[in-house]
C-alpha cells in the first residue's frame, strides 16, 4: 500500500518554531510530527509514502533519509510549484500513487495527531465496498468546522455542511482518507479542495463512507492546540500503560523525558510535560503543561507552564515563563525574567520582562 501526506506550506501558525524547521519536523511528544504518522502507516503495511510539499522539500527529504532505512519504508516527495489545495496534490502525485495492484491508498493531513487506527480503517473500507472512506471525529463546537452528515448505521455520507449556523451534527472531517485509485480520475491538476469539490460528488453517488475515529484527535498546527494535543497524547499513552511515561517522586501526572536528559534535585515535573534529548533541568525547577525541546537548559528554580521552549534555548534562574509563551530556537531568557505569553523569534536574548502577550522580534 501507499500513502500521501499533505505537508503543504510554511506553517505560519506555528512560528517561531517553523522559522527553524518545516512544520512536520517540529517535535511533538519528543518525535517529529510526521514520524508519528509514518510509523503508524508502516505498522499497517504501507511500503511507500509520498510527501506533497511546496516548501523546503530538500530539508524534509534529507531529514527523513535516515528513517527510510531504519523503518524500511520508501519516502519521496511530490513538489508543488504553486499551492494546489487539498486535492490538487493527489493529481500531481498520480503516477507515484498508482500501480498495478489496484490497492486503495491513504491520504493524511500532516498536522493531525491521534492513535492512528489505520488497521480499523482498512477493514471498514473493505467492508462497505464504496470508493472512498474518511475518518470523522466528534467535537464539542461543530460550528467552527465543516460537519459531515452521515447515515449512522452504515456510515454512508449524505452531505457536508461548512461551519453550520444550526446544529446538523457533531462529526467533522478528521483529515484521514482511504481512497480507491479511481478517485484520482475525478481530480484535475489545478488548485482544488477535496472536501468542497471532490467528496460531495462521491457522496452524491453514495460511494463515500465515514468511520468515527476511536480515541483522541487534535490538529496541532497552532500553539494552543499543540499544548492540548500533548495532554491528549500523553493521556492515551497512560491509558495504554505505555512504558514511555516517566515515573518517580518528582513526577506528577503524565510526563515523557528523553533518556539523555538530566534532571536535578528537588524538581516537580508535570502534568503534561515533554522533555527532549540532551536537556538539562537544574535543581528546584517546576514544569507543567509544556514542551521543552532538545538541547534546552532550564536553570535553578525557574517555573514554566503552558508554554513551548524551542531548541537550544535557556531559561534563567527564578524566571517565570507561562501563558502560551513560545520561545523560538536559541532564545535566552535572563535570570528572574517574567514572560506572560511572549512569542520570541530565534536567537534573541530577553533581558526585560514581557508583561502581556506580544511578539518579540
From TrEMBL:
Pathway: Nucleotide-sugar biosynthesis; GDP-alpha-D-mannose biosynthesis; GDP-alpha-D-mannose from alpha-D-mannose 1-phosphate (GTP route): step 1/1
Keywords, sorted A to Z: GTP-binding, Nucleotide-binding, Nucleotidyltransferase, Transferase
Nucleotidyl transferase domain ranges (all copies): 2-229
Pfam families named in the record: GMPPB_C, NTP_transferase
InterPro entries: GMPPB_C (IPR056729), GMPPB_N (IPR045233), Mannose-1P_guanyltransferase (IPR050486), NTP_transferase_dom (IPR005835), Nucleotide-diphossugar_trans (IPR029044)
GO biological process, one term: GDP-mannose biosynthetic process
Signal sequence range: none
Record domain Mannose-1-phosphate guanyltransferase C-terminal: where: 251-360
Isomerase recorded as keyword: no
Enzyme Commission code(s) on record: 2.7.7.13
Enzyme class label: transferase
CDD domains listed in its UniProt record: M1P_guanylylT_B_like_N
PANTHER family on file: SUGAR-1-PHOSPHATE GUANYL TRANSFERASE
Sequence similarity: Belongs to the transferase hexapeptide repeat family.
Protein name: mannose-1-phosphate guanylyltransferase
Native source species: Solanum melongena
Lineage: Eukaryota, Viridiplantae, Streptophyta, Embryophyta, Tracheophyta
Gene: GMP
Amino acid at each position: 500500500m501507499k500513502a500521501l501526506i499533505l505537508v503543504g506550506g510554511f506553517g505560519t501558525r506555528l512560528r517561531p518554531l517553523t522559522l527553524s524547521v518545516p512544520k512536520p519536523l517540529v517535535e511533538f511528544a519528543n518525535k517529529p510530527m510526521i514520524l508519528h504518522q509514518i510509523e503508524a502507516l508502516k505498522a499497517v503495511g504501507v511500503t511507500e509514502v509520498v510527501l506533497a510539499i511546496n516548501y523546503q522539500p530538500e530539508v524534509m527529504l534529507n531529514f527523513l533519509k535516515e528513517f527510510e532505512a531504519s523503518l524500511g519504508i520508501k519516502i519521496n516527495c511530490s513538489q508543488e510549484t504553486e499551492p494546489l489545495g487539498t486535492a490538487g496534490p493527489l493529481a500531481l502525485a498520480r503516477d507515484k500513487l498508482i500501480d498495478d495492484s489496484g490497492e486503495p491508498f491513504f491520504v493524511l493531513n500532516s498536522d493531525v495527531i491521534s492513535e492512528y487506527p489505520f488497521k480499523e480503517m482498512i477493514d471498514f473500507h473493505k467492508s462497505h465496498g464504496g470508493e472512498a472512506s474518511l475518518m470523522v471525529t466528534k467535537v464539542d463546537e461543530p460550528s467552527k468546522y465543516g460537519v459531515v452528515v452521515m447515515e449512522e448505521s452504515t456510515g454512508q455520507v449524505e452531505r457536508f455542511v461548512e461551519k453550520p449556523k444550526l446544529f446538523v451534527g457533531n462529526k467533522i472531517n478528521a483529515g484521514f482518507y482511504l481512497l480507491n485509485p479511481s478517485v484520482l480520475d475525478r481530480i484535475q491538476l489545478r488548485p482544488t479542495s477535496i472536501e468542497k469539490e471532490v467528496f460531495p460528488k462521491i457522496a452524491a453517488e453514495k460511494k463515500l463512507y465515514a468511520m468515527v475515529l476511536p480515541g483522541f484527535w487534535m490538529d496541532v498546527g497552532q500553539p494552543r492546540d499543540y499544548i492540548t494535543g500533548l495532554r491528549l497524547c500523553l493521556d492515551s499513552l497512560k491509558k495504554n500503560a505505555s512504558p514511555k511515561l516517566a515515573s518517580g517522586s518528582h513526577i506528577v501526572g503524565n510526563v515523557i523525558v528523553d533518556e539523555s536528559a538530566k534532571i536535578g534535585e528537588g524538581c516537580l515535573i508535570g502534568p503534561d510535560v515533554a522533555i527532549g534529548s540532551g536537556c538539562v533541568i537544574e535543581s528546584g525547577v517546576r514544569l507543567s503543561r509544556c514542551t521543552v525541546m532538545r538541547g534546552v537548559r532550564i536553570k535553578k528554580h525557574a517555573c514554566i507552564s503552558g508554554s513551548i521552549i524551542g531548541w537550544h534555548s535557556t531559561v534563567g534562574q527564578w524566571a517565570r515563563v507561562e501563558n502560551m509563551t513560545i520561545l523560538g530556537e536559541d532564545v535566552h531568557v535572563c535570570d528572574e525574567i517574567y514572560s506572560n505569553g511572549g512569542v520570541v523569534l530565534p536567537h534573541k536574548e530577553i533581558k526585560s520582562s514581557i508583561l502581556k502577550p506580544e511578539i518579540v522580534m
